[in-house]
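Exercise: predict the fold of this chain.
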Amino acid sequence: MTHTHRPAAPALLAPLLATYLIFGAGYVAAKIAVEGGLPPLMLGARFAVIGAILVAIRVAMGHSDGLARAAAWGGATAAGLGMLLGGQGLAVLAIADLPAGTVALLMASTPLFAALIGHVAGFAPVAPAGFAAIALGMAGVGVLGAASLGLGGVVPIVLVLGAALAWAFGSTLGERLPQAPDPILASGMQMVVGGAALAAASWTAGEFARLDPAAITGDAWAALAFMALAVSLVGFPLFVRLTAIAPPAIANSFAYVAPAISALLAFVLLGERFGVLQAAGCAAILASVVLLLRFGHPDTPVDRARRGRPTR
């Protein structure tokens, strides 16, 4: 798949900040929804509905190129299964047993996996400063999560780390494999596949049979609405756009900042603990994002020319 040159780091800040906020709040919304009676895997079925809506809108606007191509659906399947069935599915299963902030903090390992995948594969080399930034961010994650990693047992923690790895693979494959040329149509196709897979997993797990709508709280329905409109309709297409214009480690850097936002929101809304050590971890994570954005990848001649530096 052919891409245009990547924009300068300042052009990435607005979509990155929006992604940080949306996905940060998404962890808290998922916790509220699950505690309010909504089955974990069933939450992912919303992606299929939102994805179908996005596909219909883009087709109506004349952006249907790629919809009938098997290669585009193959790329959408790889990305959708990785990011949604693997990433979202495993994370929301774990959030039933772990605090929302802890799940968010463990998901912060996503950029590390993505950077290593890109570096080893040779298509997104990481500079030494980038590895230092990743190490700093992971150290911050360690500080933030030290007091709570033992909560809920080992299995939920393994599930979240598996979710982070799956998301990293899915997002990286989404960048490298053929996709529909329109990023919104591409994200819709990915959501249709991933959401359908999550709905099938929910059915197989017996969640539909056990569902009791009368027992679901109003807060849970409100959280589901936020996840459908903000996370699925806005956040996920925005993330897909980022994977098209930014290196995988940068696109996945939301997983460094979103945990800090999640921890703060979980403290305010859910009463989860957030103290001095957590604040220090947040500072390390934010610093790592700045370093990764500025120094994480080797310069290309286009990058140096854009900043007025010699291309030598």
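Check your answer against the key: Residues 218-245 form the longest helix (28 residues).
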